[in-house]
Amino acid sequence: MKSYYENQDEEKNPFDILPETYLVSTQRDMSANPEFNDLLKRYLDSNEPQIWICKPGQNSNRGRGIRIFTNLDKIRRFLEQKAGESWVIQKYISRPILIGGVHWNNTPMRKFDIRMFGLAQ
C-alpha cells in the first residue's frame, strides 16, 4: 500500500480509491428513500457495467448476508423486502489492488482486505 501510494500523482486524493458507498435505511417503498434515489439518479441510465454489493448495515461480519447485484431495480426489490433494516450498498471495484506478485508458482493474484482494531481512551 505504501509503495502504491508513493507512486501516485501528488495531486490525486488517496480517498478516491474507496468504493462509492451508500448507507440506506430500507422501507417498503424505496422510491421514497432519498439515499437510494441519489444512487438511482447517478447510475440508472449509465451504460457502464455495474456490479453492486449489498451488506447488512448492522451485526454483520465474515461476509454473512452479503448479496451481489448487477441491476439497481433488483436491489430496490430486495431492499423493499427488508423493510426496517439498514444496508450498505457499495459499487464493486472492478480493478482492485491485488497481492500475490508475479505468478511464479501458478497461483492467481488475490484481493485482500485490511481489518484493524483501535483502542480509544
UniProtKB/TrEMBL annotation:
One of its GO terms (molecular function) is ATP binding. It comes from Strombidium inclinatum. SUPFAM superfamilies: Glutathione synthetase ATP-binding domain-like. Transmembrane segments: none annotated. It holds the Pfam family TTL. This is Uncharacterized protein. PROSITE patterns: TTL (PS51221).
